[in-house]
Amino acid sequence: MNCQEALDLIYDILDKEASEIDTKQVHDHLEKCHHCLERYKIEGDVHSFIKAKLHHAEAGTIESLRHKILGKLDAIDREEGAQTGQKPPFWRASSAFAAAALVVVTIGAAYLVAGFYRHQNVYMPLERAHWSARDGMSAYRNEAVTSAALAYATDTVGYRVFPDIAGARLIGGQTEEIEGTRMAHFVYANPGEKVVSVFVVPADKFTIPDNLKETQAMRHGLNFFDHNCRGCRLVYHQIGSVVVVTATSDRETELFDFVPGQTTI
Across-strand partners of 199? Predict the structure, then answer.
């Protein structure tokens, strides 16, 4: 099964309308394809959100919106020359469906817009910092700047950075202000020159996004939280009083196996 075939079946699976064979094939594909897995998670979140909102929303709120929409449809119908205010049953049913559909679309759109802003404000600053390091590693090779970043990580944040991790070597690092928070940013490269960024920040200065709690996974005795989008992957974990975020644009590098350093305080 390829990506398009899997994505075409997502809503059938979420609605429990797919066959057992299709469901198994899609889940087998999702185990191998991080991109489709992320898309599945997003679609699943939207699907669950809309169902929950429609279930828990105050009946009066939805009914009020429905009547407003139906009123607009009535006005349009009259303007188009209808001779009576009574509409055929099909039109009335279609109007009700349109009203309900608009409610769903409105709620879904609000959810997606909120997700967009969360990505722009929470994830994008770290992604940009990683892309900048990936495309300009020479800026991180300065020994004096790297020494200052290592001292900040060890003495201020309380985190010892390893020179080699999971076959990747430390290129260098620097301290950076990212969205008003001072972080130590270290850059690693593996033998294939695939780049990994490691951001180190005190836990009292940085909060792991709440919406990532559902992505929690245990590796090496640590809790990881995974954000995976098309342009970059970020994996968060907290060790004591330190939050470490690893980032890569390379789909082959497994950040769950990339445990950078240890706490010293």
Answer: 185, 245
Q: Inter-axis angle of helices 34-56 and 89-118, to 10 degrees?
A: 120
Residue with tokens 């809503």: 11
Cβ contact 211:171 at 8 Å = no
Structure token pair of residue 249? 């644009």
Query: What confidence tens digit (pLDDT) does each residue in 157-176 have?
Result: 999 999 988 888 999 999 99
- Exposure of 187 by Cβ count < 10 A (0-12 exposed, 13-18 middle, 19+ buried)? buried
- What stretches in the chain show pLDDT beneath 70? 35, 42-121, 230, 263-265
67: Cβ contacts below 8 Å, ≥ 6 apart: none
Q: What is the pLDDT of residue 257?
A: 75
pLDDT at 91: 47
The answer regarding whether domain 138-263 maps to CATH 3.40.1000 reads yes
Tell me which H or E stretch contains 96.
helix 89-118
Closest CA to 196 of 207, 180, 206, 185: 185
d(CA 182, CA 165): 23
pTM over 0.70: no
CA distances from 155 to 150, 161, 179, 207 (A): 8, 11, 22, 21
Determine the Cα–Cα distance for residues 162 and 149; give it in Å rounded to an integer: 13
Closest of 192, 183, 195 to residue 245, by C-alpha: 183
The string of DSSP codes covering 210-256 is GGGGGG-EEETTEEEEEEE-SS-EEEEEEETTEEEEEEES-TTS-GG
Domain boundaries, the chain: 3-121, 138-263
Contact 171, 140 (CB under 8 A): yes
